[in-house]
Amino acid sequence: MPAPHRSNDADQNGLVLDDLDRGLIHALHLDGRAPFNRIGAVLGVSTQTVARRYRRLRADAALRVVGLADPHRAGQARWLARLTASPHTAQELANALARRPDTAWVKLASGGTEIVAVVDTPTGAAAGHSLLLHDIPRTTSITSVSAHYLLHTYLGGPTAWRGHTNALDEQQQRQLRPPARVGEPTARQAVTDADEDLLAVLGRDGRASQADLAEATGWSPATVARRLTDLHTGGALFYDVEISSTLFGATTEALLWMAVTPAHLDAVATALAAHEELAFVAATTGPTNLVAHALCADPAALHRYLTHRLGALDAIRTLETAPVLRTLKSAGPLLRA
C-alpha cells in the first residue's frame, strides 16, 4: 500500500499542507530555482501568493531547497556507513557525524543505537577515506562498524520520493522543467574545481540569488546563469527539497537491508525503484547487496509492504528492517544557528 497523499496531512506541530503547498513543493523538485512567477502561472495563483507560501514553508516546515552535484560527475565515491554505539553516546556521535562536510543523510535507527550515514570520498584516493579508515575506528564506545560502497543508485538523488512529486499533472511538469540553452545541444557536464564556490552556496541554499552566487564565485551574473544551466541540463547538478515526510502522511520509516541473488539483483532493484513506498534504492557491497529506504503511513502499512510486496519477491533471500527514529542530516549541510 503506497504512502498516503491526503489534503489534511499534518506533522506533530499541527502544520497542514494543502494542494497549493504540495504543488509548490513538487515544482521545486522539478526546478529548485524556478521563478515564483513561473510557478504561480502553472499553479494558477499570483507570484505574491507563491512567495508567501514558500516563506511559510521555510519558517514552519523547515523547507529548504539545496543544489547538489552528482557524486560521479564530481569525482566522488559514496559509502553507506553503519555504526552501532552505546545508547548514551550514539546521539553525540551522530551529531558529530552530521557536522562533518563529507557526510550526508545521517540517521539514528534501531532503537537509537545504530547510526547510518552516507560518506563522500574522492574516487580512488585512500587519503580521502579518513572518516572510514581513521576517524571512526578511533572513536570510543563504538561496538561495530561496516562500510558499504554504493555501486549503483536506482532511486534517489535526482529522482525524488513520489510522495513529494504527485501533485502536478504531466502538462504542468513540462512547463516547470528548466529548458536547455537555446540553440545548443545538451551535453554531459563534469563538475570542476572552479565550481567549488558555486556548489558551496547552492548546498546551503539552492535558491540563492544570482548576485550572491556572483559574489561567492567572482563571476559575472551572466556567467553564473550559463554555468547553472549547463550543470543542471547536463546532469551534473540537481536540486533536492528537504521537508519532513510526516507532512505527507508518512509517519513510519525504515531502512531495509536485503541480500538478493546476484543474477536477479538488477531486476529486483529496478522493480523496487517503482514502489511508491520507497524513497531510495541502491546496490551495495557487503553481505546485504541491496538497501532501500521505506516511508509508510504507520507500522501496519510497513508490515503490509514487507509481507505482501517484498515477500512476493523470491530472489530476496534475507531482509533486515531497521526503523529510523530520527534524521539528523538530510541532503544539504547543516546550517549554523
TrEMBL record:
GO terms for molecular function: sequence-specific DNA binding. The keyword Repeat does not apply. Keywords: DNA-binding, Transcription, Transcription regulation. GO terms for cellular component: cytosol. It comes from the Bacteria. It holds the Pfam family HTH_AsnC-type. PROSITE patterns: HTH_ASNC_2. Residues 17-77 form the HTH asnC-type domain. One of its GO terms (biological process) is response to amino acid. This is Lrp/AsnC family transcriptional regulator.
